[in-house]
Design goal:
Residues 10-80, 132-180, 249-293, 370-424 form the PAS domain. With 919 residues, the chain is an alpha+beta fold. The protein is 41% helix and 28% strand. The structure holds ligand LFPHGCPZ. Ligand LFPHGCPZ is lined by residues 684, 698, 700-701, 712-714, 717, 730, 733, 757, 759, 819-820, 876-879, 896-898, 903.
Length: 919
């Protein structure tokens, strides 16, 4: 035992007073050495107070706790009291003991007063409780159901994880919070109502409810506890769903039973009806109540359930019967009845599903009637009908198809559609890709006699569920006539009706094709061909014979050209030939062949005519790279050929385009010429060949263009005629010539006749005679002093109309002359029909001498003929005295030409006339 330090009196008193206490009480010095302990130390630590006196208190402590106590001691010495600090001590027998220590420092005594309570048992109980709680929690966590507990203030005491899932938030951090704050969705739900009830009654509650937020059905048990309420949830969603399914299934079955399209009647072992659905009630006329208890024989027309059938049903067979059923009112209806047997709750039942066949039998009857009608229609229809199977073999045909194909029905049945048709919309019947329906498709049917019949085919393919063709039906009408008409129409639309040659549209198509297909290094030659003398032939012999000439030309062109070449007629006497070739040399050779063919005389109206032709050639790609340009350049080249003297071919040259442009410029300048007073008249005297006196003048137009200078009539008259400008210009010439001549007559004091050229366009004007009459009236020129020169072609264009017009002019007193006579082919007949006075013999006529007959004989015969017809003859273009003598000898009446005088302005003419008179 250690020596304890001496205690101050107050400390000794303290120990003396507490010796009897159950708690251990001790006095320690500042170094932690025990000064004195009470007797309880023996019970608590196993040491007598004497054994403990003088020992450092740390020695009594479990080694693990010594550091804590040292720290605690330091705090106490600083004046901080220690309250109820649990520390592990070691008893004298080595057993651990837990003491709850309180201590304080007495400054005055310089001592520590300590007390310690044995809490070993209390601590063990606490540990046990903790373990027990943990076990409980583990159990609650493992039970798979949700659980939570609340106190009477609805604060959460505990909740397992499942419950957290149910509440929707982690519960751990929310323990202690009001349940409704944590899960506000609970407000107003049956859950809360039940919890309140259980808390109020103190009675456990049990209910099922649907928890919206998680979409689950829950079975809930709540148990009131002294603290509050414990709540268990069990998820019964699966059970509820299964139950719902059963309910729904039952409902469905009931609904099916009630709403079945067929009547369903259930009879018991004694064949008394126990149930009937709505349809049965409606069909048989009984209410459901009336049905129940009725023997099944009451609704059977003639058939009862025989023992044999019942035995068979009991053996598990079902029966499908066709029978008559009887309604409540005694009426009957045909029915198909499916009878079966079943057991329910150990009872035997028979079920009959009754299908009313009234409608079906009516439909079948109607179908038969319809089939009959269909057959009649098919037999009578003029359209051919064919039905074929999936293999394309013919199963049925009607008489119309027999007659269309020329085969008997028996010969057609069994043949394939591919045999029957040459072209057929479903050739080979490719099962899946064949269209369902075809409408208005053209097909070609083979005829028994050979050849084809064009038909318009409408048809449809039937298929099974897998999409395979099961049959083909077709109706067809004969369109051979229509096809022929179409072909004819097509021919008319693309060919020239007169010659049968391709027209402009087809020419464009074919040439374009040639250009597209033209191999590299090769060329396509396009030749525009214009007959040189077609107009004359037409004018002279009439249109019918002109047509004969055109047809002959077409025939010759066909003969010359190869099959792949294109020959077309654009209209009038314009032909186009196109051929693929190596280049210019080939093209030239082709053109020459064409000219040779056209150069041979053609027999027209009993005469040999030499039509001749001018050809313009343009080569693709050399001259033009497009069809349009090719045609344009070939056309230009053709005009070049014509200008060059006809009966020849010319290749396109860029300069030709310049010529065409020049012509265009001329036309543009000509249009305003009249308004700009750019015209004047020159006059050329006409002399009587016997007296050599001037008897007339020819008025000849002259144009002094402000832009182009003097332009000869040979250049612009043709353009004026083509453009129609000749009509106003001609009107001006007539007016001017008449006016000037009247004044000239006045000045000369003698009658002089002026001859004015009238073009075909002017003559074609409806008011031409009136115009002449008005001009004569306005200018005061006597009608006998006016002579109109008309060309042969203008005269014969519309002979009847021209004759009437000339008659009117003759009545006026105007003289009529035929200009350039002898250059056309008009023949002489028109001279008898028309009131002509004068024939103007063309200059070429006088010069022509072909060796067979001399020019003189020719002109002499001509003059004699004219005289026989009481016509005067004027010879034009007399340039030499020889020709003058020649004409005199031929008995010609008048002459005109440079020999006598050139055309001259009016003032010059007057001077010339004066001089001639004087001379
Ligand atoms: N519709 C109209 N046509 C007219 C009019 N004025 C003229 N023309 C026609 O133009 C063509 C050319 O006429 P032009 O250049 O005036 O030539 C005429 C004479 O100059 C020419 N001529 C006269 N004598 C001779 C001659 O000895 N040798 C020769 N080489 N030429 C000669 O002949 C032309 C007259 O021809 P024609 O009319 O056939 O008598 C010409 O066709 C004119 O008709 C007009 O106002 N309206």
């Amino acid at each position: 035992m250690m020596n304890a330090p001496a205690l101050p009196a107050s400390a000794a008193d303290y120990i003396a007073h507490i010796d009897l206490a159950f708690e251990l009480m001790a006095v320690l010095d500042a170094s932690g050495r025990i000064v004195r302990v009470n007797a309880a130390a023996g019970d608590i630590l196993g040491y007598t107070p004497a054994e403990l006196a003088g020992r450092p208190v740390l020695e009594l402590l479990h080694p693990d706790e010594r550091a804590d106590l040292a720290a605690l001691g330091a705090e106490v010495l600083q004046g901080h009291a220690c309250q109820e600090r649990e520390l592990r001590w070691r008893r004298k027998d080595g057993q651990p003991v837990y003491l709850s220590l309180s201590a304080c420092w007495s400054e005055r005594a310089g001592l520590v007063y300590a007390s310690a309570r044995d809490v070993t048992a209390h601590r063990a109980a606490r540990e046990e409780l903790k373990l027990s709680r943990e076990r409980l929690n583990a159990m609650l966590e493992s039970i798979g159901d949700a659980f939570f507990a609340i106190d009477r203030d609805w604060r959460i005491i505990y909740a397992n994880r499942k419950a957290a899932a149910f509440i929707g938030v982690a519960v751990g951090p929310n323990v202690g919070r009001p349940l409704l704050d944590v899960s506000p969705e609970l407000e107003g739900t049956p859950f809360i109502a039940h919890y309140r009830q259980a808390l109020a009654d103190g009675q456990p509650g049990f209910f099922e409810a649907f928890w919206e937020p998680s979409g689950t059905w829950l079975e809930v048990r709540c148990y009131p506890t002294p603290d509050g309420l414990s709540v268990y949830f069990h998820d019964i969603t699966a059970k509820r769903t299964a139950l719902d399914a059963v309910h729904k299934s039952e409902k469905r079955f009931r609904s099916l039973f009630q709403q079945a399209g067929d009547s369903i009647v259930i009879a018991d072992h004694d064949l008394r009806i126990v149930a009937a659905n709505g349809r049965a009630c409606a069909s048989f006329g009984y209410t459901e109540a009336e049905f129940v208890g009725l023997p099944v024989t009451r609704i059977d027309g003639h058939h009862t359930y025989t023992p044999g059938m019942l035995a068979s049903l009991r053996a598990g067979h079902t029966h499908l019967l066709r029978m008559t059923k009887r309604r409540k009112d005694g009426s009957r209806f045909p029915a198909e009845v499916h009878v079966s047997r079943f057991e329910d709750g150990g009872q035997e039942y028979f079920q009959a599903i009754v299908r009313d066949l009234t409608e079906r039998e009516e439909a079948e009857r109607q179908l038969r009637a319809s089939e009959q009608r269909f057959r009649e229609v098919i037999e009578m229809t003029p359209a051919g009908y064919v039905l074929a199977g999936a293999d394309g073999r013919v199963l049925d045909v009607n008489p119309a198809l027999c007659s269309l194909s020329g085969h008997a029905r028996e010969a057609l049945l069994g043949r394939t559609l591919d045999d029957l048709f040459d072209t057929f919309p479903w050739h080979g019947l490719a099962a899946h890709d064949a269209q369902e329906h075809v409408q208005g498709v053209e097909a070609s049917l083979r005829h028994a006699q050979g050849g084809h019949v064009h038909v318009l085919f409408n048809g449809s393919v039937r298929r099974d569920a897998a999409g395979n063709v099961t049959s083909v039906t077709g109706l067809m009408s004969d369109i051979t006539g229509r096809k022929q008409a179409e072909t004819r129409l097509q021919q008319l639309a693309t060919h020239d009706t007169l010659t049968g040659l391709p027209n402009r549209a087809l020419l464009h198509e074919r040439v374009q094709h040639m250009l597209d297909a033209c191999p590299q290094g090769r060329a396509v030659a396009v030749m525009f061909l214009d007959l040189d003398r077609f107009k004359e032939v037409n004018d002279s012999f009439g249109h019918d014979l002109g047509d004969v000439l055109l047809c002959e030309v077409a025939t010759r062109l066909r003969k010359v050209m190869r099959p792949g070449d294109v020959i077309a007629r654009l209209g009038g006497d314009e032909f186009v030939v196109a051929a693929e070739c190596a280049g210019p040399a080939d093209a030239g050779a082709i053109a020459q062949k064409l000219l040779d063919a056209l150069g041979l005389p053609v027999r027209v109206g009993g005469q040999d005519v030499n039509a001749g032709g001018s050809i313009g050639i343009s080569l693709f790609p050399h001259d033009a790279s497009t069809r349009e340009l090719l045609f344009q350049t070939a056309d230009t080249a053709m005009y070049g050929a014509k200008r060059a003297g006809r009966n020849r071919y010319r290749f396109f040259e860029p300069a030709m385009t310049l010529a065409a442009q020049a012509r265009m410029a001329l036309e543009m300048a000509l249009r305003p010429a009249l308004a700009r007073s750019e015209f004047e008249l020159h006059y050329q005297p006409r002399v009587d060949l016997r007296t050599m006196r001037v008897v007339g003048l020819e008025a000849l137009l002259r144009w002094n263009s402000a832009d182009l200078g003097r332009v000869s009539p040979g250049e612009f008259i043709g353009i004026a005629e083509e453009t129609g400008l000749i009509v106003p210009i001609g009107r001006w010439v007539l007016e001017e010539a008449c006016g000037q001549t009247r004044r000239l007559i006045e000045r000369q004091g003698r009658a002089i006749r002026v001859s004015v050229n009238v073009s075909a366009r002017q003559l074609a004007q409806a008011g031409f005679v009136d115009e002449v009459r008005d001009v004569l009236a306005r200018t005061g020129l006597p009608a006998a002093c006016l002579e109109l020169e008309l060309t042969e072609s203008a005269l014969i264009e519309d002979m009847a109309r021209t004759a009437a017009m000339l008659d009117e002019l003759r009545v006026l007193g105007v003289k009529l002359a035929v200009d350039d006579f002898g250059t056309g082919y008009s023949g002489l007949a028109y001279l008898r029909r028309l009131p002509i006075d004068i024939l103007k013999l063309d200059r070429s006529f006088v010069l022509q001498d072909d060796g067979r007959i001399s020019a003189f004989d020719f002109v002499k015969a001509f003059v004699d003929m004219a005289h026989a017809l009481r016509l005067s003859v004027v010879a034009e273009g007399v340039e030499t005295a020889d020709v003058l003598e020649f004409l005199r000898a031929a008995d010609c009446d008048e002459v005109q030409g440079y020999l006598m005088a050139r055309p001259m302005p009016l003032d010059a003419l007057e001077a010339w006339l004066d001089a001639a008179t004087e001379g």
